[in-house]
Amino acid sequence: MRLLVLILLLGGSFIGAPASAETRHLGGKGTPAFQLNIPKPWKVFRNVLRIPYVIAGPVRATLRTVVEVTPVGPTTLKWDSEALKKHQAEYEDGRKKWAKKRHFKILSFAPQQSETWASGIDVQIVGVSYQLTESTANELSCYALCKGKLFHFKRISRGPDPMQDSDAQTADGIVRSLRCD
Fold first, then answer.
1. How confident is the model at residue 160 (pLDDT cuts 50, 70, 90)?
2. Residue 60 DSSP one-character state
3. In this predicted structure, what is the pLDDT of residue 130?
4. Is the separation of the CB atoms in 154 and 22 below 8 Å?
5. CA nearest to 168, candidates 158, 176, 178, 177
């Protein structure tokens, strides 16, 4: 339901063609400060359905790719192999319950990945694809540890293959542009 509400709420179209990215300084006032590179015509919305930041791509055939951003805050979290296995199991269980409640069909789960980006940020990535009434949605969650602060990013895109979706790739680039202040 949250996905549907986000899509409906942010359903207006944007005018303009993709252009260079603008570095946006976000956070502050009780949340960690950070920066993301947001390309045109992508837009940043604040406090949508209790989500601190929603970054929305252009409308394509009445749909758009969105990135939810939640700066969690300072943490002493360390990822070890047992914690990661537990997280993957909890993530899959939670997504199965969520999908069942909404009558969506889970198509597949992406195995959890650990990465260290060139900027030195440690990340954990998990994902799920599910069948909606008439389309496929792809959700990718990224948990990033940046200078002792935890950030949660969720990219939601539509279509059978996000690797063939230029907006999903742009959204992933936005997430990877994270810089912590």
1. low
2. B
3. 92
4. no
5. 158
Cβ atoms of 31 and 46 closer than 8 Å: no
Tell me which residue of 7, 124, 125 sits closest to 66, measured CA to CA: 7
26-70 residue pLDDT tens? 877 777 788 899 998 999 999 999 999 999 999 887 788 999 999
Token pair 């997504």: residue: 95
Residue whose structure tokens are 């002792």: 148
Full DSSP string of 73-95: EE------HHHHHHHHHHHHHHH
Ramachandran quadrant class, 176 (left: phi over 0; alpha: psi -120 to 50; beta: rest):
alpha
Torsion, Cα 95 92 130 51, to 10 degrees, reads 40
- Report field, pTM of the whole predicted structure over 0.90: no
124: nearest Cα among 177, 156, 81: 81
User: What gap in Å lies between CA 114 and CA 121, rounded to an integer?
Assistant: 11
pLDDT at 66: 93
Query: CA nearest 147: which of 72, 74, 78?
Result: 74
Determine the residue type at 14. F
Q: Which two tokens stand for residue 60?
A: 């394509």
Select from 87, 97, 9, 113 the least CA-distant residue to 51: 9
